[in-house]
């Protein structure tokens, strides 16, 4: 049972992080100044203050929405795989981690599309 709780907590780290950052960033709690340490950092999002604020808020909304789905799928899959047996449980945990990382990376695509739609190459609003 200890192994279940350990892997359950490990499996929930990425989804909970997505929810927390999504909640913070979709509002006004993202990093105020353009910086290379924290926030949604791509070359387009770091052009100026407008692109920075837009990209961080947009990414926060996406992570908040997707985070709920990833959290539910992860919890459900972890519990079902535990009931199916140890080998399936361990394999499922690895697959979940890789899938969560892929989902987190995919959140970049809609943000960059929205940035390109709203701003030109120089970061000026269209």
What would a concise description of this structure say?
It comes from Faecalimonas umbilicata. The chain is an all-alpha fold and 126 residues long. Helices cover 74% and strands 0% of the residues.
Count of DSSP H/I helices:
4
Please summarize the sheet with the most strands: none
Distance between the termini: 56 Å
Order of helices and strands: HHHH
Number of domains: 1
Radius of gyration: 17 Å
Structural class call reads mainly alpha
Q: pLDDT under 50 segments (min length 5)?
A: none
Percent in strands: under 5%
Shape: elongated
SS elements, strand count: 0
The chain-level mean pLDDT equals 93
Helix content: over 70%
Transmembrane segments: 6-25, 62-82, 88-111
Organism: Faecalimonas umbilicata
Keywords: Membrane, Transmembrane, Transmembrane helix
Protein name: SdpI/YhfL family protein
Question: What keywords describe this structure?
Answer:
elongated, 4 helices, mainly alpha, single chain, 0% strand, 74% helix, 126 residues
Please provide a written account of the structure.
InterPro entries: SdpI/YhfL. The chain crosses the membrane at residues 6-25, 62-82, 88-111. This is SdpI/YhfL family protein. With 126 residues, the protein is mostly helical. It has one domain (2-29, 45-118). The chain has four helices and no strands. The protein has helices at 2-26, 49-84, 86-106, 108-118. Helix 2 (49-84) runs antiparallel to helix 3 (86-106). The longest helix is centred in the middle third of the chain and has 36 residues, at 49-84. The radius of gyration is 17 Å and the shape is elongated.
């Amino acid at each position: 049972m200890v192994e279940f709780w350990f892997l359950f907590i490990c499996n929930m780290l990425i989804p909970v992080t997505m929810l927390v950052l999504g909640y913070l960033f979709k509002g006004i709690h993202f990093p105020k100044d353009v910086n290379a340490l924290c926030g949604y950092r791509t070359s387009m999002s770091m052009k100026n203050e407008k692109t920075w604020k837009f990209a961080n808020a947009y990414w926060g909304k996406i992570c908040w929405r997707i985070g709920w789905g990833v959290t539910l799928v992860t919890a459900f899959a972890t519990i079902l795989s535990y009931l199916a047996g140890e080998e399936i449980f361990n394999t499922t945990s690895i697959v979940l981690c890789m899938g969560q990382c892929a989902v987190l990376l995919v959140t970049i695509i809609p943000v960059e599309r929205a940035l390109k739609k709203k701003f030109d190459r120089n970061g000026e609003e269209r």
